[in-house]
Structures are given as structure tokens and as C-alpha cells.
Write a structure and sequence with these properties.
Strand content: 15-25%
Structural class: alpha/beta
Largest sheet: 7 strands, mixed
Radius of gyration: 23 Å
CATH topology of the largest domain: FAD/NAD(P)-binding domain
Oligomer: single chain
CATH class of the largest domain: Alpha Beta
Distance between the termini: 28 Å
Strand order of the largest sheet: 8-7-16-17-18-15-19
Number of domains: 3
Shape: globular
Helix content: 25-40%
Number of helices: 18
CATH architecture of the largest domain: 3-Layer(bba) Sandwich
């Protein structure tokens, strides 16, 4: 009889876990509390404009690279699913009176930044050399950064922040700011992020950046189809109330409506705060896990303005690239308000013209474009509306949301005059939106914050403390689409291995002779 696995959550990690287990012959039931599958991979549409709340780009999609290898494990080809972004500048970094396009290739990037900061060439070259020493290894390990700890240079970067590494490496703070400008990809300023994370994210994209062909829904649908082809069942509006336990072994789950689903394996691909703080009684967990859950800090939330524009943004300076735009050279100050629980006076923002990155032309009507304007935001100003129903929230919330969205667009207008116009569609999301659609704890977009005390070896393990329990998602391998996809494959691999070992152990037991 086939082993049964329940997967809680159908975000990136849950979908790869489901497909990988089904491929191995498990009877898989994937449970999603929302109306649609996918978590942050779930797109939405407004009047023929298609938007992607959680995917703006990925790296490592070429043959042999980490994303390509992860998707091959579930029978998918990353080259078919993703299209390349502008190789001459997939990320555009902007500070006051300054712009740098980050190109594909570490050597090209070096030449470009040295051209802008020639007096700092010696320090730049020394830092680039350090990056080069880790480049091949990180790519070869699929960003499983725990394996790098034994290397002298990597061990040093585990024990300090990215800010400390940059301050040691550069006399000119503006050069340091350029290297740190992509820190919105993990939601922490340089002073809070592990140095190894800042380095790894930079290297993750430098060999080429990609966007899901047709939008994030195409990636979600491909993963679901792979699971279904091997018999996996996906259930929507199926909210888990608890994970059932017998002694030190999980036995399945109970849904909010009282339905019980028995299982040999449970992979929880949701925030660890839910897995270990809500689904399981503390009496079933080691005291160390109870303490860990209590101390876990969530990452920041986000505010996003989704725009459908009746204009081609290529006529207004945009293309198949992202923009990181900061109001000052002080990146720390850009994160300060969100980390302190308040909204800023001026916004740092991320511009993502997703319809221009997609080569299918299906995300906006002909001659039109989509634009997503994202800024990091705290949960606190929105917390009082967290329990209100989506689409039925109080007028006070709607007014506040619109006010914040308008302020964000005003910042875009100041620094990109005339970019936004001919608006056909406008929608605004907040941290409470993230809670409703993706089950994000405190509206966090990156799961647990990737602080040094919560990252890599100190993150949650893919194998849980109970027999048959596994974990996937940002809490395991860190923030971002690719680590989450990889975490599901890792959890499934462990589950398959351990279930096979249990079966071998069972049949190897001595049998009593028949009387």
C-alpha cells in the first residue's frame, strides 16, 4: 500500500514537495486554506491586466544551475518556464543623481562600477575577487549556504553582518551602497543581514535573471500539473486546524471543519510560527523548539500598487528589468521606519514592469503595460484590520490604504516624472492582504526574518522534531522563490529516504517462528 503524505500549504515549497512525493509513489493530498493554489505564486487579473504579487525575478535558470536542477527533480525544464531579462541591466540601481544598470556577468559588473568609481578600483577589485572565490561553489550547491560554513572566508561572513563586511571592504560608502542595493530581495538592511546572505543573493542573479513565462501562474500551474500527473490531489479552502500526534509521531491532520486526514508523512510548507506555534501543542514539542518559536521574528511586510496602464512603458524608459530606487544614499534610513513599525516620510521603492519581462505578450492588452510598485512596510499600522474580511474591510482601512498608495505613487512621480499615466487599473495591497491570500504571519513577505540568529544553521530544519514531520518554505532555506522551491524538494527527499529506511527496518526485524 502506498504511503500517504499530507502537504500543508501550496506555496512554492509545498508545490515542489507535493510533486516530488507523488513522483516517488506517495499518495499526496495538498491542502490550501485560500480559494486559489499557489500562495505568493498565485496571480490575479483586473480587466485583462495580469499581476504577480510574489514573483518578480529569479536567477540560476540556465542548464546546470540551481533553479534548473531543482525543477528537473520534478520533471520540469526551467528554460521552458522562464524567459531571460535584459542582460545589459536586469536590475537598475538608482540613488539621487546616480544610476547603475547591473549586467549579466561579474566581470561586466566590475567594469561598470569601476567606470563610475575609478578612485575606488583597488577596493572594488579586492571585493570582486572575494565574490569570485565563492561564486562557483554557491552556484554548485543550490544556495544551501549551510554547506559553506567550513570554508574560512564563508565562515567569516556567517559571523558578521553584510554592513560590517561592506564597511571593512570599502572606504567610499557610496560604493558599499551600490553593492547593498538589492537588499530588498531579503527585506533587511545591511546592518541586519548576514554577510553571506547579501553575497549569495548578489551572486544568485549575476549570471542571469529570469521571469516566469506568462507570469507566476504558469510556474504554479506547471508544478500542479506535474503533481496531478502522478496522482497528487490538491484541495482548496481546506484549512488545517492541527497536526495530529501519537506519542512522538505525526499521524495526519484535522481540518477546521473537523475532517480528519490520516497520513504517514506531514510536510508543513507554511510559516514555522503556524507549524510549531499553532498546529502542534507545545506538549508534543521539545522545549528548545517551543523557545525557538517564541523568539522567531517575522520579516517585514509590503505595500504594493498594481497598475494597468494604457501605454507602452518602453516609451517611458522601462524595459525587461527591475528598478531599485532610493531617496538617499543611506540605505539604513530607508529601512529604518519599517523596522521601527511606522511608515516613512519618503519611500524607497521597487519598480517591476512584469508585462515587459514576459515574452508571451499575455499579461497586458496590446500596446499596454503592467507596473508593480513595491515598498517594504511594517505590520503595525495595519494590525487592527488583520481580522477583518477581505473585500469587506472597514471604510477606514480602504481610505488609509488608498492614502498610502497615493503617497507611494507621489514618490514615483517625483523621481520618475511622467512614468505613471493612462491608468486603467489600480489596486493596492498591504500586509493584511498578504495574510489573507498567502497566510503570511504578520503580513511578512519573506517568512521569518533572515537575521543571523535565524538563518542557515540557525534556521528551521527540513526534518521536524517528530517522526514523519517535515518542513518547507522560507523558514528552512531562506527568503526567495528559488530557496522555497528547493526546500520542498529537500523535504520530500528526506521523507522518501526515511520512510524507505523504516520499511527496510520493519522487514529486517526477526520473526517469531510459527508454533
Amino acid at each position: 500500500m502506498a504511503k500517504r503524505a499530507v502537504v500543508i500549504g501550496t506555496g512554492a515549497g509545498g508545490l515542489t514537495a507535493s510533486a516530488a512525493l507523488a513522483q516517488e509513489g506517495f499518495e499526496v493530498i495538498a491542502l490550501e486554506r485560500a480559494k486559489q493554489l499557489g500562495g505568493f505564486l498565485n496571480p490575479f487579473a483586473r480587466r485583462h491586466y495580469h499581476f504577480d504579487p510574489g514573483v518578480h525575478y529569479v536567477g540560476q535558470a540556465a542548464p546546470g544551475e540551481s533553479l534548473h536542477r531543482v525543477l528537473r527533480r520534478v520533471g520540469l525544464d526551467a528554460q521552458e518556464l522562464f524567459c531571460p531579462m535584459d542582460p545589459d541591466g536586469f536590475d537598475v540601481v538608482r540613488f539621487p543623481d546616480f544610476e547603475l544598470r547591473i549586467p549579466v556577468g561579474l566581470d561586466r559588473f566590475r567594469d561598470r562600477i569601476v567606470g563610475l568609481f575609478p578612485a575606488d578600483q583597488r577596493e572594488i577589485d579586492a571585493f570582486i575577487q572575494k565574490l569570485s572565490s565563492l561564486h562557483a561553489l554557491i552556484n554548485g550547491r543550490g544556495r544551501d549556504l549551510r554547506r559553506l560554513r567550513g570554508l574560512p572566508i564563508a565562515a567569516l561572513w556567517y559571523t558578521r553582518t553584510f554592513g560590517e563586511l561592506l564597511a571593512q571592504s570599502f572606504t567610499n560608502p557610496r560604493v558599499a551602497a551600490v553593492f547593498a542595493a538589492q537588499c530588498g530581495d531579503y527585506g533587511l538592511p545591511p546592518s541586519k543581514a548576514p554577510a553571506i546572505l547579501g553575497v549569495a543573493v548578489f551572486l544568485h542573479f549575476i549570471d542571469g535573471s529570469y521571469f516566469p513565462r506568462g507570469g507566476s501562474g504558469s510556474l504554479r500551474d506547471a508544478l500542479v500539473e506535474r503533481g496531478r500527473a502522478h496522482g497528487a490531489v490538491y484541495r482548496r479552502k481546506a484549512e488545517v486546524a492541527r497536526i495530529n500526534v501519537d506519542g512522538q509521531r505525526v499521524t495526519g491532520v484535522t481540518l477546521a471543519d473537523g475532517e480528519r486526514i490520516d497520513a504517514d508523512v506531514v510536510i508543513s510548507a507554511v510559516d514555522p510560527k503556524l507549524t510549531y506555534g499553532q498546529f502542534l501543542p507545545s506538549s508534543a514539542l521539545p522545549s528548545s523548539m517551543v523557545r525557538k518559536v517564541a523568539k522567531t521574528q517575522a520579516s517585514v511586510g509590503s505595500i504594493c500598487v498594481f497598475l494597468g496602464l494604457e501605454r507602452d512603458l518602453r516609451d517611458h524608459g522601462m524595459g525587461a528589468f527591475n528598478v531599485w530606487d532610493y531617496p538617499s544614499w543611506d540605505i539604513e534610513s530607508a529601512f529604518g521606519p519599517a523596522l521601527a513599525g511606522r511608515l516613512p516620510d519618503d519611500f524607497a521603492f521597487f519598480l517591476s514592469p512584469n508585462s515587459l519581462k514576459d515574452d508571451t505578450g499575455s499579461m497586458a492588452p496590446a500596446g499596454c503595460s503592467t507596473l508593480e510598485v513595491v515598498t517594504l512596510a511594517p505590520f503595525a499600522p495595519f494590525a487592527k484590520w488583520a481580522d477583518s474580511k477581505s473585500m469587506k474591510r472597514p471604510a477606514e482601512y480602504e481610505a488609509f490604504k488608498d492614502e498610502v498608495g497615493d503617497k507611494l505613487l507621489a514618490a514615483v512621480e517625483r523621481r520618475w516624472p511622467g512614468l505613471v499615466g493612462d491608468v486603467a487599473v489600480k489596486d493596492v495591497s498591504t500586509p493584511v492582504t498578504n495574510i489573507h491570500f498567502a497566510g503570511a504571519v504578520d503580513g511578512a513577505i519573506y517568512g521569518p526574518a533572515a537575521l543571523p540568529e535565524q538563518f542557515a544553521l540557525r534556521a528551521y530544519k527540513p526534518k521536524g522534531p517528530l517522526e514523519g514531520l517535515y518542513h518547507a518554505g522560507a523558514g528552512v532555506m531562506g527568503p526567495g522563490v528559488v530557496p522555497c522551491l528547493a526546500s520542498g524538494v529537500m523535504a520530500a527527499k528526506l521523507a522518501v529516504k526515511e520512510q524507505r529506511e523504516r520499511r527496510v527496518s520493519f522487514f529486517a526485524r526477526p520473526r517469531l517462528a510459527a508454533s
